[in-house]
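Review form for a predicted model. The reviewer records the input and the model, then writes brief findings.
Reviewer: anonymous (R2)
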Amino acid sequence: MSTTHGSPLPEQLAEIKPAGTYAQALRILNHLPNLEMLRPARVDPNAFKLGRMHALLERMGDPHRELTLVHVAGSKGKGSISEMLGAALGGCGYAAGLLTSPHLVDVRERIRIGHELISEAAFVRLLNRGVQAAAAIQDDFGPASYFEMITAMALAHFRDQAVDMAVIEVGLGGRLDATNVITPAVSLIGAIQLEHTQLLGTTLGAIAAEKAGIIKPGVPVVTIPQEDTEASEAIERAAAAAEAPLSVLGRDIDFTHRFETDHEHGPHIRVGIATGRTTYEHLAVPLPGEHQAFNCGLALAAIDVLVSLGFDMPEVRVAAGLAGTSRSGRLETVWDTPRVIVDGAHSPDSIESLVRTIGAHIRYDSMVLVFGCAADKDADQMLEAVARGADKIIMTRSARNPRAADPAHLAERYAAISGKIAQVEPSVKDALNIAARAVGHNDLICVTGSFYIAGEAKQLFANKQRSPAPA
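Model under review:
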C-alpha cells in the first residue's frame, strides 16, 4: 500500500515510506499532530514536554549543540525582531539561519538562511531523517508534532550548512516550547501581552514567567520596558534565579528613538543604542510603526552581545543589512493597482498598531479592510480597533484555518460595537473581488486579522501575477 499517495498514512511513523518528492514530504509533515490548528481549549497541556524534543535531536546528532544561537520570545514582535537581526547579520557578511513561524504561503519560509528558503530537496531529505528519528522514539515519547519536526529540521539544516549564527523564534510561550532545548548566546524577550491564556496563564505576570522560561543559566538576556509591573518582575525573578545578566532597553542600555520623514525613507523611526562596547546611532528602522522601535533596539542589543563574542558588526553594514529586512506579512504590498497590503496582525494591540501605522505611513483617500480572525481571539477588541480606521469592512474567513471565526458572527459583533454595517463574503477571494470593485485610484485595501488571511491573500495575488495575460 502506498503511504505517500492518497491512502491514509499509518499512525506508526516507522511504517511511513520515505518521501521522494516535496509534495510527499508535505503530506507526511501534515500528518503529524499540529497544535497550531487546534483551538487552545482543545490542546492538552501535557502535549508540551521537552523530553521528546531532546530525544529527537539526540537521534539527529544534536545539531543545536554545534551552533551559535539567539533565542527570541515575546507575545508581540518576536518575528520582527528575528527578521531585523537576521538581516543585520547578513549585511555584515554572516550566514544567518532563521527559524520563524508561522508561514504565509510555503512552509519552507520557516527555515531560511538569509532570504533563501531551504530547498525542496533539502526539505525532503531532512523530513525523512526527522521521521526516521521520530519513529525510533515514538514508543517512549509518542509521535513528534508538526512544530517539533520543523524545529529539528531547521537546526539540522543550519548545522549542515555551517551557518555563522542562527536566530530561533519561539513558537508558543517559552518554557515548554520545542525551541527551548537550545542554549543561546543571548536571549531576547519582546512585549508581553495577554495571549493563549488557556495554556500560558490568565495574567501578564504568569505569561511573562512562561516567556522567561527561555532564560538559561549565565546567558545574557535583554528585554524591553514592559507595560505591566508583574510582567517585568516575573522576568527579573527568572533572570535572578538563573544568574543571567539582565538588561532592559532604556534602563541598562542607552536607547533613543524618534519619528522623522526624509526623501530616502519617507516617514520612519530612527533608533540608537549605546552600551560602552558598541554605539549605533540614528539607524532607520526598516519596518513601519512606532512599536518597531523597541523591536529594532532588541535586535541591536543582541548584536552588541555578538560583538563581545567576536562578530564584526560595523554600523554602516548593520544599517545596510537592516534596510534589506523582509516585510513579508508586515504591511507588505502585494498588488499595486488597486493598492493591496497584507498584515498578519492577530491581536487587539497589533490591530491597533496596524491602524495607527497605516495612518502615519501610507497616504490614501479611503480604506477597505478585509478581516478575518480565529474564533478563540478577542474579536470584540480587534473590531473596536478596526472601526477606528476602516471606511468599509468585509468579513471573511481563511479556508486554511480550521479555527476561523464565522464571518457572519464577526459582522454581527462589528455592528453591535460600532453601529456600522460590514459586508460578509465566504472566502478571501470573494472578499478581495468585492473590495477591488469598491476602491478608487487613491484608495487602499488592507487584508488582516490572522497570518492565514494574509497568507491566502498573498498567494492569490502571486497566482494572479503568474497568470498569462489574455490574448
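Findings: Residues 396 and 458 are 15 Å apart (CA to CA).
Further findings: The chain has three domains: 1-61+117-150, 65-94+164-323, 332-466.
Recommendation: see findings above.
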